[in-house]
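Chapter review: from sequence to fold.
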Amino acid sequence: MNRVLVTGATGFIGLEVARQLAVRGLNPRVMVRRPQRGPLLRTIQAEVVQGDLESPASLRRAVSGVDTVFHLAARASFERYGLLRPSIVDGSVRLMEAAVQAGVRRFIYSGSLLVYGARETMIDGGTQPRPVLDYGRAKLEAEERLSQIAQRAGMIFASLRLPHVYGARDLLFEQVRRGLLIFPGSGETHFAHLHVEDSARLMIAVAENDWSGISPVSDDLSVDWNTFFGVIREYYPRFRLLRLPRRLGLLGTSLLSPLQRFSSAPSLFTPGAVTGWNLNLP
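The token string follows.
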């Protein structure tokens, strides 16, 4: 890797990818859609460019002279397909097409474990996707489209189906810092997890080793949410967990969901998020 572009660089995972690349001395180019979020990158040695997945011209500028793309930009919320498709599917395809035209050699995509449905057995590389959430459906569609374009162009393409990625800056820990997390469900479903630093390190290693393919990834311990929150409480003794019945959570978020289309920020309070909390995905 010589010249690297990171999209979604002001997001939770994208910022960590950009930081680790900068620490390696790569001076990444980072694409930012909203200039007001640019200050998040002030501690990183990086070239900041403004770009939008809905603007092909801005994408062509962003990928010019780049040999590797780390694509993490998208609407990151568990909403209905119609709201998700423009960025997750259409925007990703526009970026890939611009990358092909620019002669980009590698394209690393942040997929999602939510391309799978609830399972009793462990997910592995042979598990067939069966998304139950519109978010998982959109991520799977984008992954398939990108893979097809890359194959025709002879580009190295890798999609890592990331599990629950956690760290101090994520939405869950934002609620923890406030002292209260509302959890809709029993907390007994198992889920795969991965710390944000490990997620970024893995994406960079995939690019460095020219690995191509599609694979689920996680750390080596899938735990239920009750265990996960128990560990959090060891470090945040004042943290309180308010449980709601899953059906009540679905009802409440269904009433709030019409307001989500007016916000570009991700939210933990959507019907899809409630369903996601209660999927068994080890």
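Two observations follow directly from the output. The chain has a mean pLDDT of 91. The first helix runs from residue 12 to 23.
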